[in-house]
Amino acid sequence: MRLADLGERSGVPLATVKYYLREGLLPPGRRINATQAEYDESHLRRLRLVRAMIQVGRIPVATVREVLAHVDDDSLGLTVRLGAALWALPHPAGEAPGAPAEAAGPSRETAGPSREVAGPSRETAVDPHRAAADLLVDELLARLGWSAARELGALSPAHRALVTTLATLHRLGYPLDADDLLPYARTMEQAAAHDLDRMEQLPTPREQTEYAVASAALFEPVLLNLRRLAQCEESNRRYGL
Amino acid sequence: MRLADLGERSGVPLATVKYYLREGLLPPGRRINATQAEYDESHLRRLRLVRAMIQVGRIPVATVREVLAHVDDDSLGLTVRLGAALWALPHPAGEAPGAPAEAAGPSRETAGPSREVAGPSRETAVDPHRAAADLLVDELLARLGWSAARELGALSPAHRALVTTLATLHRLGYPLDADDLLPYARTMEQAAAHDLDRMEQLPTPREQTEYAVASAALFEPVLLNLRRLAQCEESNRRYGL
């Protein structure tokens, strides 16, 4: 198909398609003469993914380019290819903005006899909340038997983001323990198995990796709203109206 | 405890505590003389929740005030109280910014013979993607047996946000069906049961509602990162490294 048809079928404005082409987010078409090129279904699929990442996932163009470089790397085995593409995506860290400044210590005016109530000094280099979160994630992964996640540890951005989130919750007075987290991790384990089951229905490693990226970036609001609906349903079941 | 101790124990700067008091997000203390008031553990708990909602959840002050009004409404039954507090929270809708403008029709320059490929005209008042998403959510809830969620329908912001997200995915070329969504909904059903099990360990309906709000607003990054870790683990298990 021609460029105009690509815009038409995807619903993406032509100026946006041309911008993605210039930025290298969409591979060039096959030249058919000096002014025209031919595009195929793989361009359409890629165009949809790029638009979804940018418009729905709010992912910066440079990040999209990095993710796609991994998606397109046929030299990688599937686990590494999936891992590299997913690791390049933004990870929600649930970190309080300004938290490090606050953690540097209470303001002068509040320093006084009650100081020790706050626990170990937050002015030392080691953040006790982060240390607690590190131990917690390690214990959780050991009990889950997630050996790959444990070996990779802080190399994985999901691991780092999880530790940061739990450290923030700990600092804010919501300490969680491994017993709290285990059932959620088990349900996410089931969800991940469904993710891969669906992914495996696609024919090529490239399409599979594209699907994994789309699902990671776009499927999160679906999961979070299903959780809210389920909470309402379960609450109604237990306590009536 | 005095105001300074409240700031100290919570780690919240005193100026911030005073701001929350002025904005009515934190109830006033018990006056003990012309210049001083006494605060208790319930103030500390509330202060942590408010700070977490604003700093971690990035929730606007007016929204926090509305959520807390429901948390504090002792006249409500637990399901309605929980529902009202959770419904007032922001819901992630996964909507493409500018999508309605795009959906208003292809640009002039792409109008041509291939026009009909795009399917039913997107210039009509009824958005076919939204209609498909509406039908899909209805089928899903029927198959799940979530009768409360189905009766409430679009009254529930989670229901509306789910429809909007699925309509966006549909428009972007990622149509899902009820078979795709069922296993995720079932895992979220389990997660919701754990949420309420934990919540029930707290002694009063007010503390229970506070916990539900904190968990909805703050626990989402934990779940999403556990999902990413689980995907990596399951991928390693199936395909090796």
Describe it.
The structure is a homodimer of 241-residue chains. Chain A is mainly α. Helix content of chain A is 63%, strand content 2%. Chain A has helices at residues 3-10, 14-22, 41-56, 61-71, 78-87, 99-103, 128-144, 147-152, 157-171, 178-199, 205-218, 220-239, and strands at residues 30-31, 37-38. In chain A, strands 1-2 form a two-stranded antiparallel sheet. Chains A and B meet through helix 1, helix 3, helix 5, helix 6 and helix 8 of A and helix 1, helix 3, helix 5, helix 6 and helix 8 of B.
Topology:
2 copies of one chain form a homodimer.
Chain A: H1 3-10, H2 14-22, E1 30-31, E2 37-38, H3 41-56, H4 61-71, H5 78-87, H6 99-103, H7 128-144, H8 147-152, H9 157-171, H10 178-199, H11 205-218, H12 220-239
Antiparallel strand pairs in A: 1-2
Helix pairs in contact in A: 3-11, 4-5, 5-11, 7-9, 7-10
